[in-house]
Amino acid sequence: MKLVFKNIDKDGSGCIALVPEEPEDMWHAYNLIAEGDVVTASTVRKVQTESSTGSSTSNRVRTTLTIRVETIDFDTQACVLRLKGRNIVENQYVKLGAYHTLDLELNRKFTLQKILWDSVALERVEMACDPAASADVAAVVMQEGLAHVCLITPSMTLVRSKIDMNIPRKRKGFVQQHEKGLNKFYEAVMQGILRHIDFSIVKCVILASPGFVKDQFFDYMMQQAIKNDIKLLIENKSKFLLVKASSGFKHSLKEVLQEPAVMAKISDTKAASEVKLLESFYTMLQLEPAKAFYGKRHVEMANEAMAIETLMISDKLFRCQDILKRKEYVGLVDSARENGSDVRIFSSMHVSGEQLDQLTGIAAVLRFPMPELEDSDGDEENDFDSD
Amino acid sequence: MARHRNVRNRNYSDEYDYDDVYGHSVEEDSCMSPSDAEQWMYDRSRDQNAMSNFLDGRNDIQEETEEQTAAAHRSFERRESMDLRGLNLKEDDEAKLMSCLDELRNVFGDTISENILVHSVLKHSFNYDKALDEILNNKTQKDVKEPAVPLNPVIIESVKAPVIVTVDTPKVITTKVEPNKAAVIKGFRIGDESPRSCPQTPRDQSPANRDRTPSRADQVDDNKVYIKVKENKLDPNAQFNIERGSDKTHLYIVVIGHVDAGKSTLMGRLLCELGEVSQRTLHKYEQESKKIGKQSFMYAWVLDETGEERVRGITMDVGKAQFETKTKKVIILDAPGHADFIPNMITGAGQADVALLVVDATRGEFESGFELGGQTREHALLVRSLGVNQLAVTVNKLDTTNWSQERFNDITNKLKVFLKQAGFKDSDVTFVPCSGLTGENLVKPPAEAELLKWYSGPCLLDVIDKFNVPQRPVSRPFRMSINDIFKGTGSGFCVAGRIENGVLNKGDKVLVCPSKEMAEVRSLSINDLVSNVAFAGDQVSVTLSGVEMQNVAVGFILSDPVQQVPVTTRFEARLVVFNVKVPITKGFPVLIHHQSLVETANIVKLKALLNKSTGEVLKKKPRCLGNNSVAVVEIEVSRPICIERYKDVKELGRIMLRVAGVTIAAGLVTDICNI
């Protein structure tokens, strides 16, 4: 993301102009834009004109519109952000108050105006515009009959392709069917890799599986590459990294990212550090339950006592529709920072963030034990049960 | 402008049209031939016997009451009330009828169909003697005719049974009317809602039917229908006795243990000793294994068939083989021992009745397999949680310790303590010393002098022979879990799996769940032998038609179309947490293993922490679940799955939770949330 200008008043209101450059920037934009914000962007609109004789013609016009956002739609797979709202600046084609849906486009400037730019939003802008943090890793987690081809970007894990196949089991006299099924499966995974992984971008491709599936697959792939002369694979052979995973499901990526060999390669991505943090939270919960808490109420109480060492919070909480609630969370983050705690905002697009989301979205590791918190029952945690 | 309006109008109307079609079923638009339509419509004038048909239908259900299990009881009650209405009896008349029926049943048992009884009782206005006379007269007539019926394999099989059984008409029909059953079941369902149409499904009236039952041509039409219905429902137990009564009982054994404990070799050797493997094949294995320098694996090759397994020298998927003992037909499932293949092992163990735990007696090897992280522990816990309660422990490779009694005792003592904790009764666990590679103490009593000095117990084969075969829930509604899908030799495709409950006949209609598609059973085979009927506990491969192969996945359940298996994404379970590195919290992502199904799931709610022994609630809404705790939780699965409450169907009510290749908990389903 490129920051074009920033114009923020003392009271926190103002506008910022940004140019998204990568698909991932759409994710940042999605996290920045809230309902009620004003967005100006160039867009294409079908305009109908009526001539004096009564016949009308419609043509598509590129124009710049300013809308007040009412609904936000984000397609994680295509990384497309759609903003629907009413036009608030009259222009020659579009009347005031007419509905329009803005599709934010790559490499086109958009201006975002908010009544209040809070610390979390500003931090997001900063993070989005940081050019250093872009290292893409592709990962294929698989087991016999199931594979996920994923792309891990700094703030997102995208499942590019899921291969779910039935492989007949070995049975007396029918071993060929098993082996045939296996080869078909490998072929599908290989096609998935070729189609969805851009070797010019990714730093490395992790192949992870239980047992020998990964070795077998790698052998198969290389054999095919040589046989069919697939240059792409042969040239990038060194980019492949074989590690162990317990299954072919997506959340076993968590184990993959904890693997030392992988850590060394991708240590700068957010994904790995988040997994590590969450893991440390769980170990703390096991060893010293009085020093690890989750749920808004518990964490707030811990914050009041200035006890928080690391605060983990999912960005999903900041995307909530309720402005007051967002304010509360921003307040919590700010005060925790003031108290000297380390605040990490997890991306809900990563496996670790998904897990944190399930765990009420907020968790903290404390500096000192607070057993009194443990006894107070977390009745209010029900707030989050439904999401 | 006007033109535009036209265009718009056209679009609108198009859309209307589309909506119209959308609201309709497509089938309604397609035409139906009058004769087809007729079959499905009720026409009062067509069949004078319609009312009596209906009555009989009711009666037959009434009889089921006694046979039916508690599960089906509710539906039965409903039918019974309709039955009374159908007969239009007053209360005291009904009581009279009941007592007469009781008396008659004392005389005839089940040999005479219920509706005949009812008929005659009503005919003679509750006069027991007259009714009895009439039935007896009819019966002798029938007996005379019976020899004309071509004898049936089924009849020959049941020679031991009293002669009456042979005469018993329902049983004759058993084999003959099978293809009709699905239709009959349908009739039932309709009967629940609109009783009149009950016996009039088109198939019942098709001439083909009559051809199939020549012996019953003298019977009234409605009787025939009735008996078929009854046949289908009444019999699972009787059918089981007929088919299996004279056979050796089937026993499924899963072989478990740490990697390289010698499971496959032991089983391979056992099969060779029993003559299940031909000399030639064995010789081939010997030569080939020698070629790649793994001669000690030659017996294991009997079960490890894929190239990968042979090259690596480990079992990766469950191998299957069978042999016979004195009293049993034993099917062994050779599970992989490697930690990475535990999902496969769970699939195997889920189908087994009893387990054979193999431990390596070699110094150091037993310890490494038994200590934390070894599979001996995990496997034993897993099979116990999967409902296996009889276990034989073979202390393998004892020849490497020179048949030392000390070592044997050492190992058995350690295991005894552990197995007791795991929940095995002392009386259900047997220890056998043996050696798989040399074949000592497998099928014959030991010849080794060192071993004879201190061991006088049974050999492995005898131990297997002594296992108790669990009761098969034959009379419950049909359930079968699918663990393999493959292309068969003929048309269609096959699914293999274990029948958990009930009976499956060739020609039955089954519901493939959770996708809820109807399929028809084209053929079925048990252990590669074609059969017409299979019972709970059997592992069968079923050729299905009516569904696409792509739409069936491992872990699906075939279910009775009437009494369906529940499908849900969310359920409540009681968990027993094993040794876990990190505690279980809300939102914990896990893999759930349910029969052969593996699916991602989340623990969405921790409801209560329970006391381990008493089961009382220690804490509501705990923050996390630590080691060895027992708790009630709610689990949400990412895709709908078929699951049953433990109290309804035990096999389908058990789940395993695994994370990162470690089993963290086992659970029983206590409640199913509706979606």
From TrEMBL, chain A:
Write down the superkingdom of origin: Eukaryota
Where does it localize? Answer: Cytoplasm
Give a GO molecular function annotation for the protein: metal ion binding
What GO biological process terms are annotated to this protein in UniProt? Answer: nonfunctional rRNA decay; nuclear-transcribed mRNA catabolic process, no-go decay; nuclear-transcribed mRNA catabolic process, non-stop decay; ribosome disassembly; RNA surveillance
Q: Which SMART domains match?
A: eRF1_1 (SM01194)
Q: Which cofactor does it need?
A: a divalent metal cation
Functionally, this protein is described as follows: Component of the Pelota-HBS1L complex, a complex that recognizes stalled ribosomes and triggers the No-Go Decay (NGD) pathway. In the Pelota-HBS1L complex, pelo recognizes ribosomes stalled at the 3' end of an mRNA and engages stalled ribosomes by destabilizing mRNA in the mRNA channel.
- Family affiliation: Belongs to the eukaryotic release factor 1 family. Pelota subfamily.
- Name-wise, this protein is Protein pelota homolog
UniProtKB/TrEMBL annotation, chain B:
Record's keyword terms, sorted? Cytoplasm, GTP-binding, Hydrolase, Nucleotide-binding, Phosphoprotein, Protein biosynthesis, Translation regulation
> Which SUPFAM superfamilies would you find in this protein's record?
EF-Tu/eEF-1alpha/eIF2-gamma C-terminal domain, HBS1-like domain, P-loop containing nucleoside triphosphate hydrolases, Translation proteins
A single GO molecular function term of this UniProt record? GTPase activity
Tr-type G domain spans which residues? Answer: 248-474
InterPro entries in UniProt = EFTu-like_2, GTP-eEF1A_C, HBS1-like_N, HBS1-like_N_sf, P-loop_NTPase, T_Tr_GTP-bd_dom, TRAFAC_GTPase_members, Transl_B-barrel_sf
Gene3D superfamilies annotated for this entry?
Answer: DNA helicase RuvA subunit, C-terminal domain, P-loop containing nucleotide triphosphate hydrolases, Translation factors
Domain of life of the source: Eukaryota
**Reaction equations catalysed:** GTP + H2O = GDP + phosphate + H(+)
Basic and acidic residues bias locations: 209-220
Any Pfam family from its record, for instance, is GTP_EFTU
**Composition bias type Polar residues, residue spans:** 197-208
CDD domains for the chain: EF1_alpha (cd01883), HBS1-like_II (cd16267), HBS1_C_III (cd04093)
Cellular component terms (Gene Ontology): cytoplasm
Q: What GO biological process terms are annotated to this protein in UniProt?
A: regulation of translation; translation
Family, per entry: Belongs to the TRAFAC class translation factor GTPase superfamily. Classic translation factor GTPase family. EF-Tu/EF-1A subfamily.
* Protein name (record): Jg26834 protein
